[in-house]
Amino acid sequence: MSIARIFGGPRTASSAADEYHRRKRLSVHGAIRWVIIAILVIIQVYPLLWLFITSLRTEHDFASGDPFGIPKQFTLENYARAFEAGDLGVYIRNSLIVTFGASFFIVLMGMMAAYAINVLGFRGSKIVSGIFLLGIIVPVQIALVPLFIDYSQINLLDTYASMIIPLAGFAVPMSVFLFSSFYNYIPKETYEAASLDGAGPYRIFWQITLPLSLNTIVTVVLVNSIFIWNEFIFANTFVLSDGLKTIPLGLQNYIGAMGNTDWTATFAAVCVTITPLMLIFMVLNKAMIQGLEGGATKG
């Protein structure tokens, strides 16, 4: 018997070759993956970068030069004009009030409804849960005319409540779904132990369920805040005065006579309005992912 066969020489060489080809395939796959990721990042980042750069261009540079080219001059006058001439501060204030108000009711009603359905339990709870799920597919457009008629009869038009109520109402079904999925993930023994210690349903909710739901709360707030912040339909239908216009509705004021648009001021206004959402999303991104994993996939 040869030494090569005793020590497995041919098999060692074959294994080395297989290992080389395997690593080569992995490196190729890794390179392709990184190329795809880079392309996606460029697609996502370039519009934001172009928006920010354009917001710093002068009106003459933007109008006479290449809109997608490198700016020749930079200025902060666009931001000053956006706040002074466009009442951007008023629009931001109104959007903050509507966003915080609607998010508060979305979280509160979603948590309480999911707690009653999944934790407390009652006869017909599955039917109620199914009705909430059906609410997810209801389009918001069908409620515009009935709500407008009702608001006009009770003098609720042109108020913050006229926007907060429908925004919260149409978002509650998805909120109930996320909270219900998360509550199903919480072990029943936790509630049973609390009950044996003498805790009632309200105490269990505030001291056990609420602290455990923080990641899901962050997820619900972020997902709905992005939609509420950019919402246009309800604001355009129920708001009549300039003092209550939100950001999407107020940006129409940057259109001047004969349809002329102050593009550089508009881009500056858009940069100001999207920056808070981007910063909040970057800070709370991890909590949002954990909330989606815990509340949506483990239920």
UniProtKB/TrEMBL annotation:
It comes from the Bacteria. Residues 92-284 form the ABC transmembrane type-1 domain. The keyword Membrane applies. It is found in: Cell membrane. It is a multi-pass membrane protein. One of its GO terms (cellular component) is plasma membrane. It holds the Pfam family BPD_transp_1. Keywords: Cell membrane, Membrane, Transmembrane, Transmembrane helix, Transport. Coiled coil: none annotated. One of its GO terms (biological process) is transmembrane transport. Signal peptide: none annotated. InterPro entries: BP-dep_ABC_trans_perm, MetI-like, MetI-like_sf. The chain crosses the membrane at residues 31-53, 96-120, 127-149, 161-183, 204-229, 263-284. Belongs to the binding-protein-dependent transport system permease family. This is ABC transporter permease protein YurM. It comes from Bifidobacterium psychraerophilum. The lineage of its organism: Bacteria, Bacillati, Actinomycetota, Actinomycetes, Bifidobacteriales.
